[in-house]
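With this grant's support, the team has encoded backbone shapes as discrete tokens. A representative record is reproduced below.
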Amino acid sequence: MQIVATPVSQTMPLLREYYTDIVGRYYGRPATTAEVDQAMADEPSDDIHMLLAVDGEQVLGCVGLRLHQPPFAEVKRVYVVPAARGRGVARALLAEAERVARRHAAVTMRLDVRDDLVEARALYAACGYVEVDPFNDDKYVGHWLAKELVVPPSRVVPRAPSAGPS
């Protein structure tokens, strides 16, 4: 599996699949085309740095990253295609998103997630994300999470001196 930066315009079919999934889960039934179109219009992805997980020609999943509010980087659009779930794709995407955020001088990753996306919430907790105070007023969000990318100096443990020649 490789994770590659990809222009948003080239990720639109996968983003449509993502929205079809989450809109359907929200309503508890298959999403209509109009509902997916409306969700995509309400939450544009134009300003997101997209990463795709691929295996050869097969697209496995994606993650989006907003980098325009330093020192924060915001995780968006985490999605793994059903056939690739349970294979560590989402963890790999999050890890790469964190690396990209560090390269852009972000010190805190943050994200928001709905109550019903329990698998996503479990993944984020396992990856070190913790509940924080709300940082937006999205009416669909039930949880706001963050992860520090930089270890504060007070938490850095100095290495023991090496036992080299004196």
Observations:
- The chain has a mean pLDDT of 91.
- Residues 107 and 153 are 13 Å apart (CA to CA).
- The first strand starts at residue 2 and ends at 6.
- The chain has four helices and seven strands.
